[in-house]
Amino acid sequence: MKAFMNDNFLLTTDCAQKLYHEFAENMPILDYHCHINPQEIAENRQFRNITEVWLGGDHYKWRQMRSNGVDEYYITGNAPDREKFQKWAETLEKLIGNPLYHWSHLELRRYFGYEGCLNAETAEEVWNLCNAKLKTPEMSVRGLIRRSGVTLICTTDDPADSLEWHERIKADETFDVQVLPAWRPDKAANIETSAFPDYIRRLEDVCQTRIQSFDSLKEAMMKRMRYFDERGCRVSDHGLNYVMYVPAEMEEIEAIFQKGLAKEPLSDDEIAKYKTAFMTFLGKAYHRLGWAMQLHYGCKRDNNQFMFEKLGPDTGYDCINNYAPADQLSDFLNNLISTDELPKTILYSLNPNDNAVIGTIIGCFQDSGAAGKIQHGSAWWFNDHKAGMTEQLTSLANLGVLSNFVGMLTDSRSFLSYTRHEYFRRILCELIGGWVENGEYPYDERTLEKIVKGICYENAVSYFGFTGL
């Protein structure tokens, strides 16, 4: 029986162990998509205790605590932090087969030096150990980033954001990790929401211009994109129900936009037509700017209305959606490429059943603009576990060019989540090593090193065009 989480954790073959320890283990991290707060980096936040780091906003953990029958008082309520941590420890010991068990113990080992297992009995020991270490300078936000080997971070930012924290970080010569904005214009896309008119007014204030038409919205968007571009932005991100393509004449789009401003009811068809026009405009703009476009879709959000009204969005009540029409995704990309305005694009579906769909669609739109110009994004959210990552990597290898993959991202709000890159790299090396051991690929050390290092880091540097790394 192997010891839990030893040096060869998840690595079962000699080749996998060699690939990981010699090529992957010490590669830097480029986190091109996350949800961490740039203000906390600028201010170099120091956490008071492990509950703040682990449970403050982690809906992955909240879901499992609820599944373990924990009262909401200990999850998002006003229970003392020590009691919340105890409830998490009692839940964690039950999570056999769940990636949270692996992630949590990787974090305890890499950042806190704790080699044991967190459970109800050890919670007090772990609480005291972690809290003592969190008081040290190397466990500040910047310290954690440096210790993790991170060279560049892309946050997630609304077009109306001032980006003042990014500017402060850039001006601070004591911190050499690049922190760049990433463009996330979902609020301008979601015309069906009651908040849409108020958001347009906010955008007017930021742009200092009236937005009275769809054309003037596009002008405001371009103004903000240039602002982001000047501050190093090289990537956009979109959270979509699905990638839609329902084209309409501009006169109809304008009428739909006016209805949205007036908070008039919109049909599903009208919403799809507006979002098609909006995303088409943005896709072409990204092509001109040289930005990559990330499309995250396949999620049904806020399913528990009772709890949504209490806690709001992003609190652990989302699920996989099974509606993502391949024809509309393909037609959307085809429309952009028909005028040679298709940007680099990364497709992520929350539904793993879409892996093969994505793998076959991206092959229709590749060109010499970049190696792997259209990417099948890493296993996302409910899929970033061992089986999900293996399935995504295998599907990409079967249907495309795995060697051109831009690799892992944290997609997290936690500064301890960089161990997910280690988790991914071990799974990657186990997969490739297994193929080599089984005689499915030659043991060519030079080529294997290039493949592994590329997927871990170097492909992303080249793909996004980041400089200074």
Provide a compact summary of the structure:
It contains 20 helices and nine strands.
Provide keyphrases for this structure:
alpha/beta; three-stranded parallel beta sheet; four-stranded parallel beta sheet; 20 helices; 9 strands; 469 residues
Topology readout:
Blueprint: H1 14-24, E1 29-31, H2 38-42, H3 50-55, H4 59-67, H5 81-92, H6 99-112, H7 123-134, H8 141-147, E2 150-154, H9 164-171, E3 178-180, H10 186-189, H11 196-207, H12 214-230, E4 235-240, H13 250-261, H14 268-289, E5 292-297, E6 299-300, H15 305-311, E7 319-320, H16 326-337, E8 344-349, H17 355-362, E9 374-376, H18 386-399, H19 419-437, H20 445-464
Task: Describe the model.
This protein is of the alpha/beta class and 469 residues long. α1 crosses α20 and α12 runs parallel beside α14. It contains 20 helices and nine strands. The longest helix has 22 residues. 42% of the residues are buried. It has a four-stranded parallel beta sheet with strand order 4-5-8-9, with helices on one face. A three-stranded parallel beta sheet has the order 1-2-3. A two-stranded antiparallel ribbon has the order 6-7. Helices cover 49% and strands 8% of the residues. The two termini are 42 Å apart. β8, α17 and β9 form a beta-alpha-beta unit.
Mean pLDDT value: 97
Poorly predicted ranges: none
Q: Major sheet: size, sense and barrel closure?
A: 4 strands, parallel
> Helix-strand pattern, N to C?
HEHHHHHHHEHEHHHEHHEEHEHEHEHHH
Number of strands: 9
C-alpha Rg, in Å? 23 Å
Query: Which word captures the global form?
Result: globular
- Going by helix content, strand content and strand pairing, the class is alpha/beta
Measured between the Cα atoms of the first and last residue, the distance is 42 Å
| Beta-strand content estimate | 5-15%
User: What portion of residues is helical?
Assistant: 40-55%
Query: Number of helix segments?
Result: 20
